[in-house]
Amino acid sequence: MPETTCNTSESLAPTPLPAPHAASDGEQIIELFQTLSRSTVWEKIASIPFEGDTFEPEGMVRLGDDRYIISCGDYTERTKKYMNGEIIDGTDRTAGQGFAHLMVYNGEGERIADTVITKEGEREYHNGGIDYDGQFIWGTVGQYRPNSTAYVYRTDPTTLETVKIIQHADHLGGIVCNTWDNTITALNWGGRHATTWDLDDAKASGDVKPTSTVRNPSHFVDYQDCKWLGYSKLYEGKSVMLCSGVATVGGYNLGGLALVDVATMTPLAEVPIALESSLGVRLTQNPMDVSVEDGKLRFYWMPDQHTSTLYIYEAQP
User: Pfam families this protein is in (predicted)?
Assistant: First the structure.
């Protein structure tokens, strides 16, 4: 079991667990996404301060209005760039130190639990984006530097018990779980490549080889947190994920959302997001989830480090 601190006797997750996007509102999200543009009017529904130090939030899974699971990175020693742009063992910076956390909050922003899923001294401590398949939370923990190592894990949201599933010889960040094909796809540093594994192979062997690795042809934004939406009728049966992210372009921090073909990483639809937190951080920086409320797309973002607020915005017709 992980080291878990609980601040209440409340359950960690609702019973029964909700259906994932692919089995509930995935196609509706895809259809409503087609209405988004640079001129979309966004209405703020709520801004909810989250209790305690949230470190660097990386991913979010919303299990209904009253439960949010957040993946976070706690950095006790910052990485440092090598001098003169030197590359050592394929990477450009020191390993640093820290811990990967999973935190549970209720709809009022009260912290229900804080779980540390790594051990002191481990080089892999950077928690990435997370996804939910209706039974498990799926995430990645990697070194906090490119061209390094990482692993895929799954967590039972009712207990926060975490199991390492796949080891990989590169950094991993965002992740989605395709429950229909029983595959996992994870993105490397900056979302430049997507690697897919067959989970049936993971059960049969400790040395799991990827079934594919594809290059991301889009340089719009670096995907931070993604959610699998299922196979879309609108996109002729393609496996589609929704991704949120940022990119610094000419000194400007650009935010954006994209529907992406998981198999090829080809963007199917993209929209820039200019919204900022009260601290001036682009809302699409890291954690994201989505729902459909009264026929409107509602997004959940938590961009700020340490002192974090959950921002809920709805796209107006």
Answer: DUF6454 (PF20055)
